[in-house]
Specification:
Elements (H helix, E strand, L loop, with lengths): L3 H15 L4 E6 L5 E3 L2 H8 L4 E7 L2 E6 L3 E5 L4 E6 L11 E7 L3 E6 L5 E5 L2 H4 L14 H8 L6 H6 L9 H11 L12 H20 L40 E5 L2 E5 L15
Parallel strand pairs: 2-9
Antiparallel strand pairs: 1-7, 3-4, 4-5, 5-9, 6-8, 7-8, 10-11
The chain binds a DNA duplex (16 and 16 nucleotides) through loops.
Length: about 280
DNA sequence: CCAGCCCCCTGTCGGC
DNA sequence: TGCCGACAGGGGGCTG
């Protein structure tokens, strides 16, 4: 669930409590939460390092230390928060990795255990598979169009590929496609130049709107301060199956595309003509 | 290379 | 009430 807007909100919320802190110890109770290096080396290397700054790349949280970067991916249910060492938190029962600080603790809670932590001295190499940041200058219309050429997979599936654009997930893919009036199951290569240009713009709008509302708290996601994001209250289609389209009143439809629940308005996002209109 | 599918995990919810 | 399967969806890995 945490996509770019949620991860960005987490990073913003962690800057204040984390920058300037020093890591004094590391604890874990689930091996697989630690991607690399191996837990012993991880703990030895991370201990003693000062937190210099925080950043984000795609859906990855970057905690820049003196000599390494602590990289964290929340996947579906990860949560990160800083608490006083003796303070209890509602998500504590799912904490699988913890970093003790000179003041407080950074806790990584993860119900489904899909999340991963990494420690690396070369972030660029670790994340070299990622495409451009959709809100950055490298995300060009020309590059976006080029990435749609010759692809017959569904446009939604293409938007979810992180090597194409970094940070887009199921929710904001649906929202961007609705805003652009493009049916999610259309082959990527079937988009016209003007449709691609429109989608490039609405993708950025959907993500930016998500950041402004501090992310979507649908079930597990919370801001580091424990509060809920409000982005879910501003969705056009996600999570609104069988409800009226906010733009035309037609009933929002839910189908599966790329093995994911996919929401769209059959009126605002029509299936292209000509092609196999089954039934 | 590409596209489709399974799997990793646990909590929640609908159906019987 | 309790059990069970479906579903949630990021992304690595395998297959045809």
């Amino acid at each position: 669930m945490p996509e770019l807007p949620e991860v960005e909100t987490v990073v913003r919320g962690l800057r204040e409590p984390l920058v300037g802190r020093r890591i004094t110890a590391m604890w874990h109770d689930w091996q697989r939460s630690i991607h690399s290096p191996a837990p012993d080396e991880f703990a030895a290397r991370v201990t003693g390092q000062l937190v210099r700054s925080l950043g984000r790349r795609g859906k990855y949280i970057l905690i820049h230390l003196e000599h390494d970067t602590l990289v964290i991916h929340l996947k579906m249910s990860g949560r990160l928060y800083v608490a006083a060492a003796d303070a209890r938190h509602e998500a504590d029962r799912w904490v699988h990795v913890r970093f003790d600080l000179d003041q407080g603790q950074l806790r990584f809670s993860d119900v489904r255990k899909f999340g991963r932590v990494y420690l690396t001295s070369d972030v660029a190499a670790l994340l070299s598979h990622l495409g451009p940041e959709p809100l950055g200058d490298n995300f060009t219309i020309a590059g976006f169009r080029e990435g749609l050429r010759e692809r017959k997979l569904a446009i939604k599936a293409r938007l979810l590929q992180q090597e194409f654009v970094a940070g887009v997930g199921n929710i904001y893919a649906d929202e961007a496609l609705f805003r652009a009036g493009i049916h999610p199951a259309r082959p990527a290569k079937s988009l016209t130049d003007s449709e691609a240009t429109r989608l490039h713009r609405t993708l950025r709008e959907a993500l930016q709107t998500g950041i402004e509302h501090e992310g979507a708290s649908i079930n597990w996601y919370r801001k580091p301060d424990g509060g809920k994001g409000q982005s879910q209250n501003h969705f056009f289609v996600y999570g609104r199956p069988e409800q009226p389209c906010l733009r035309c009143g037609a009933q929002i439809n839910k189908i599966r595309v790329a093995q994911r629940g996919t929401h769209f308005c059959p009126n605002c996002q029509p299936e292209p003509p000509a092609r196999a209109a089954k039934s």
